[in-house]
Amino acid sequence: MFSVSSVTDRSASPEAPAVGMPVLSILRFEGLIVAVISAAIYMKLGASWWLFSFAWLAPDLSMLAYLAGPGFGSRIYNAFHSYVPAGTMAAMALLLHAPVLLPFALIWINHIGVDRLLGYGLKYPAGFEWTHLGRTKREPSGSIQPSEPRAAFQVSAPAPPVTAQS
């Protein structure tokens, strides 16, 4: 019997992104649309662009969690780079009539959209460079480029059963 192991499994190649090129392009385009719409709404609110520029990198402070290890770091990073908490903040701002929260939510959403556009995705516990958009690698120029996509899943035979030895 065969099993399917995901890219986070040690037996699977961690270089395998969760998506192929057509889907990767769609996800990056989605990031562009989110970034443009959130910036347009922010502009329409008339909020301070100084606030935008200072608060824009705040979600990246979650990278400090990697100091405690890649598993913990990826969980914290993903919590701050998911649309769910940022969207929840925006919804709370609207539902609770707390307009002071809305600019922060839009900045957060914009940050996530730009990250997706640039190929920075949610992280796997295998390491910071392993994302749901593929592996990011440093080029000699210093820029970060996504690696070529590979199969998202690897078929492998299960490990032999462990028997007790006396």
Mean pLDDT: 78
Oligomer: single chain
Order of helices and strands: EHHHHHEEEEE
End-to-end separation: 29 Å
Strand content: 5-15%
The DSSP helix count reads 5
Radius of gyration: 19 Å
Give the beta-strand count: 6
User: How would you characterize the largest beta sheet?
Assistant: 4 strands, antiparallel
Q: What structural class is derived from the secondary structure elements?
A: alpha+beta
Uncertain runs are 1-12, 143-160
Describe the strand arrangement of the main beta sheet, using strand numbers: 2-3-4-5
Principal-axis shape equals globular
Proportion of helical residues? 40-55%
Please provide a brief summary of the model:
The protein is α+β, with helices and mostly antiparallel strands. It has 5 helices and 6 strands. The chain has helices at 21-45, 49-55, 70-80, 83-95, 102-118; strands spanning 3-5, 123-124, 127-131, 134-138, 144-146, 154-156.
What does the model show?
The chain has five helices and six strands. It has 166 residues and is α+β, with helices and mostly antiparallel strands. It has a domain at 34-136. A four-stranded antiparallel β-sheet has the order 2-3-4-5, covered by helices on one side. It has a two-stranded antiparallel ribbon with strand order 1-6. Strand 3 and strand 4 (134-138) form a beta hairpin. The two termini are 29 Å apart. The model is unreliable at 1-12 and 143-160 (pLDDT under 50).
